[in-house]
Protein 1
Amino acid sequence: MPATIHDVARALSLSITTVSRALDGYADVAAGTRQRVIATAQAMGYTPNRAARQLRRRRTDTLGYILPAEEGGFTDPFFTEFIAGLGDACAKHHYDLLVSTAAPNSAQELALYQRWVQGGKVDGMIINRTRLADWRLDFLTERNIPHVTLEQSPAQKNFIGIEVDIESGYHDLVAHLVNRGHSRIAYIGGPEMLKIEQDRCAAYHLALHTHDILPAPELLTRANLTAEGGFQAATYLLDLHLPPTAIVCINDLTAMGAMHAIHERGLKVGRDIAVAGFDGIADSAHTQPPLTTLDQPVYTIARQLVGMLLQNLNGQTLEVPQVKIQPTLRIRASTGG
Amino acid sequence: MPATIHDVARALSLSITTVSRALDGYADVAAGTRQRVIATAQAMGYTPNRAARQLRRRRTDTLGYILPAEEGGFTDPFFTEFIAGLGDACAKHHYDLLVSTAAPNSAQELALYQRWVQGGKVDGMIINRTRLADWRLDFLTERNIPHVTLEQSPAQKNFIGIEVDIESGYHDLVAHLVNRGHSRIAYIGGPEMLKIEQDRCAAYHLALHTHDILPAPELLTRANLTAEGGFQAATYLLDLHLPPTAIVCINDLTAMGAMHAIHERGLKVGRDIAVAGFDGIADSAHTQPPLTTLDQPVYTIARQLVGMLLQNLNGQTLEVPQVKIQPTLRIRASTGG
DNA sequence: TAAATTTCCCAAAACGTTTTGGGTTATAAT
DNA sequence: ATTATAACCCAAAACGTTTTGGGAAATTTA
């Protein structure tokens, strides 16, 4: 049974009030007393009970994040980095991070929101993989729960969060490909409900248009953001009567799958066909050949999101509620570098 | 301000006791009453305040896990899968998962243990990347906090957790390499303080011994479990007067870095030099060439760990407190398949 | 009909904090 | 020698639940 504030108070013949205030750094406790309190609290191994403190303070010092996992294990390194960033930033601010998994739009996801948000288990939520019509945002705004999102949903008012400038990223990427002589440029996207798919697909079209390339409908395909999905989509593309000479992928994992499919055909990525990804996961530098990608600083983004959320939570109005981040084009051998 | 149990009780002219018991499924409340309670609770959007419940129940229904992150982002897909497994299993049992990051043996790590364990924020902890002398285990056993570990630390008494059978795994792997004519087999390990490094290094030596191969000291090297580390270690190995013909790596990420280094020399992995990993992360099937690896079912392991921890938490004695899991050897092109 | 049992409900205590609103000494100002 | 001020300290009231130990009314049993 861990020591309570009463134990500490009794040991010192003080009131619990004084102990509490001494530890919390209030000015109305004598320096000597504070010393003794801190010393014996330390000696007795006293740490305030979180539940009691939360109950009284009406705040939990905890943020929530739900990993958009479909049934079964999944391993996009993007999320390791994202969670690492969230966890690190939270720890730095003495906040805790609650994590769970739920398939998008599942009953479990809703149940989690009820438990966490309505049950007051978290003070705020971090959301990514924003959807076009996203009930999570409605849920949170209705209840006035602070939250930040990685990409902005169209309907979203008073958006606080970060957006990656896809348009300029894809512009640069496609320019690079066109420079290298490509004009049959395919696109492997993700689920249509996702904001990033919408954006990247649109940016892809815009970039083609800028370079006076007519988009070929058969070169527009979708997968599920995994290597396996990229493998299948690329297989389809390679089976086309007139296959593409370059493939732009919605994320690095998809690109890795696509490269695998290409190699399996005996073709050489970078020479016979160009492949590009998006994310800049650490592995992308070590694939064979190394992957050209639009690198977004996931770790930094995650930390910054937490920072914004905490500012918002503490009632400060953000000078810049919407941050736009430029991805940087890393040209590597997979596009013939 | 979310609705409390008092609001519900008032709306129904019932006592809060009855509301509480109705929702918790006690038998001593009339069927009709229970209906009404559930209905209005639902209508009012009532969800029990977690802090209050935790305080009273003296349990939090929350487990803790600390990501062993060094400063800066890191992206071993192993951890995405591990966390996904933990999160999924927790969610299924209506438990929550608290996650943070801390560098091993750092002050932050200790602070987290105090906040979470002594502050009663979690009911139990999940530990992996076990160390040879691991204060975390002492901390928890001293305070009688339930916990499970992925690998057993040498000093650990009453070990509850899972161990992967590395010995048999490495035996099979080395046999496979010897079969293909290799005898200069190098090893790229990880930090010496880690249990897995100790085990895998020992298993590597044992497997060599079994095949009457004398271990060459210069072929034994260590990195830091990242692709970058693997890249550097492999570079060192390739620079040797008499380089190895095969490289066994402590994990897949290291192997990916090693493959990169090999390609950069103009050598072909699988033909000129064999590379093998450990983990079986999803990407390993899509590297070029696909990576031979010892596949451990991380997702399943994580879920099972949670299951064991919860059993232990609920006072059940585990029939099998120590589970041993066999990794399966996936032979792919990186070893000349 | 009286006693025993069952059915349904509730008041009050407890969980461990933080915060409010003073209160009691000692010190400083008049 | 008062009175104001400052420096320390504390009792009690929350925070929102769950649990304990009944208690009253309805039903069954004798």
Protein 2
Amino acid sequence: MSREPRREQLLNAADRVIQREGPSASMNAIAAEAGITKPILYRHFGDRNGLIRALTERHTGGLLTAVRAALAEPLERRDRVEHVLDTYLAGIEARPQVYRLLTHPEPGDPSGAGNALAPALRQIAEEITRAVQHQVDLGADRDLLAEAWGRGITGMVLAAGDWWLETRPCSRTRMVQALADLLWGRLAAAADLPTAVLPTAPAEPNGD
Amino acid sequence: MSREPRREQLLNAADRVIQREGPSASMNAIAAEAGITKPILYRHFGDRNGLIRALTERHTGGLLTAVRAALAEPLERRDRVEHVLDTYLAGIEARPQVYRLLTHPEPGDPSGAGNALAPALRQIAEEITRAVQHQVDLGADRDLLAEAWGRGITGMVLAAGDWWLETRPCSRTRMVQALADLLWGRLAAAADLPTAVLPTAPAEPNGD
DNA sequence: ACCGGGGTGTTACCCCCGGTAACATCGTCG
DNA sequence: CGACGATGTTACCGGGGGTAACACCCCGGT
């Protein structure tokens, strides 16, 4: 049996274990789940990071290409943005546990999984940057704005999607609307409230 | 000598070591830097997480209160938003190493510092949410929008600020403008570019 | 003067984890 | 057959987090 299929099997096992025990699962545990012992894992993945990386690449690959495709869709701008947002949210919605453990390495966990999503996010940010650069007329500042916005939008969607996935405060389409509205300047356009009380916030000096 | 001062000294030592060796610094190393041995650290902080938590609370406290104050400033909306953005960027600019190691636990690092910033960010998000709820008229959807936007804006600023700090592509004030412009819907308002080529992106199947 | 408690600190140890070395086995191709 | 490339094993190492047990030191109370 050539390397690749076995690799897949091992990744599957690692996946199961990590879903069950969290990202701090030990190499021993993963090996045991696969019915083998550690050195084999190391032969295939080099070190723990290699395993984690392979795992996350597998998980994020689909999402990344989906977002890429959504960005290239020939739609009106607002529709395209909504489409991208929806694609991302649908992606993380499809595998919430996976997504969660990629982004939220439970505290006190000796694993490098915290930034495992980082590469994928960086790539998404780059895609958005490129799309903005090629599709939107921003004048002289285009490069700077496109880059800053690419990162910013990615981070925005990450954080907001994260919260949405945890609390599920509304349907996906409504969430898409909320985020698109934010990007469409609704925060800027809305009227002021009549400056109610606002006593510098009650703010108990509570720490976390 | 009562507990508190010693605690501060230990935190200072931990700080130095972590700045020097990265967040993966061992408890042994920290203890050595403080001129003592491990059990004392454990007496004061319980476990490694306690130490890290105390450390990050110290570092993020100032930033958090600064942002809180900026949010309450009695300014025009755009000015207030810019003020908040500038406050945040100035905060991370002031201690780049600290910020970086809080957010970017170098890969392959067995430390729980990756999410150390998370509580502070959560609090910032809550502050923004409250501010939006109390200051902006958003109609029936106000609660949902305020919450989603609070998270979204926080994530946006985090990601964009992160990138800005790493690459320093422009002055702080320009960065503030770029982000405020994004929130003000400049992406939505800008004209289309004449749909150049855009062949679905070359996209070598390259990983990372 | 004596003791006890709360602080300081130590050495020595445990368990587990990531990672490696050395060795044994099986199937396939020349 | 023999070599090769895969499979797998046991046994070990270094080091990290965390704890137990013990020792000192000072200060306030009786």
Protein 3
Amino acid sequence: MNWNSNKAIYLQIVDRIIDEILAGKAQIGDRALSVREYAAQVQVNPNTVVRSYGFLETEGILLNQRGIGFFISAAAQEKARAFKRKEFMEEILPEVFRTMDLLQMSIQELNDCYHQNINHEKTN
Amino acid sequence: MNWNSNKAIYLQIVDRIIDEILAGKAQIGDRALSVREYAAQVQVNPNTVVRSYGFLETEGILLNQRGIGFFISAAAQEKARAFKRKEFMEEILPEVFRTMDLLQMSIQELNDCYHQNINHEKTN
Amino acid sequence: MNWNSNKAIYLQIVDRIIDEILAGKAQIGDRALSVREYAAQVQVNPNTVVRSYGFLETEGILLNQRGIGFFISAAAQEKARAFKRKEFMEEILPEVFRTMDLLQMSIQELNDCYHQNINHEKTN
Amino acid sequence: MNWNSNKAIYLQIVDRIIDEILAGKAQIGDRALSVREYAAQVQVNPNTVVRSYGFLETEGILLNQRGIGFFISAAAQEKARAFKRKEFMEEILPEVFRTMDLLQMSIQELNDCYHQNINHEKTN
DNA sequence: GTGGTCTAGACCACC
DNA sequence: GTGGTCTAGACCACA
């Protein structure tokens, strides 16, 4: 796994799990990998995963069953989407629009970028 | 100024100065506020401003004349725009499009947000 | 049953059984459910019930007749009451009074809560 | 410091700090002891204090100023009281009343205990 | 100096 | 086996 050095690893793990839930790769009720398994898989210390899982539990995305493990909560999709959407609408987008203004970039240009990006992905 | 963000304060100051240059509030050849003045103005430790100015100097946006102070370089506008544009196109936008995909958000919705945002600013 | 609490499940089961004894739902000499039956009933690992029963045995509330099962001991009512009362008077109440002091809550308020609580239960 | 082995140390530290705020020993705007200082004072590992402070920050009771330290937030009293009160009303009290019922203890007896307790404290 | 993060390794209660 | 906590010690960015 490639870690971006600007963001805490445990938060990058959080993002990754949220993305997987949103992408439907993890279904409601699925058991999450055990802390040790996940840690081994992504090559980090188990404590780091404990932190990620703990964070996701406070967000209501994971549920902990004592002595058994963590599970994808029933509201995981919804909570994950809300979490991501809030971050996007309140923190990312305003900054994007402000930057566009400074760069004197029109919304039309942004649309062009979007469609280029989409086409680029399709050909991959 | 709110320093609540997760981003390092010195980088927030960098952004702020670049924004002012792009917005034309600081002209080529203008003398930048002294480190102490700026620090006092934004309520921050002078060392922090030193770091911001240093960063802008390596980017070619500020020029340091020893014993006199920092000045807006001749190429400041151009450099600032290039810096900002590169960051925007290569780091911000791809992530934005990826997030839109995860949130199943159409480019149309983004356009709507943009126009709402613009109108909101105009009425301020 | 909700096992969400911070308390160990086997202790929650202990509390539940003590409560049933105090409430007179389990009579002296009654045979307790087998570990497996109880485990199935409350949806828990049998080992967990084993632990609860073991705890109650050391408290003299259950008796184990090898090969037959667990029974409510003759002194169960008395032992259960003593156990609960001791815990209540020595651990719970002092902490309750200290918290009331911190919250600047009067004994009158507590009385009000009590009566509200009672009325609420009656209407259920 | 005496640690109760039933509760995580970092949570006991949280409780202790909340109690001090409610008791008025820590005033709004006061700087909290640095993580290292506090850790040395109560003889635990700094990481444990980091966890306590982090918890209190998410509760809005402490504020973190980057590179400077933690401070008692403006809303600390209110947040601390709300936190404690919620815990008391929703978790402690219902259990207390249920136990009183099981022990066939009247509200009058509870009042007596309260006044004894108060008198006892006064003579200390 | 401050807090933030990560690792390594240990012990625990619990299922 | 599971997660939860704690320690010890390290390194980092930041003020």
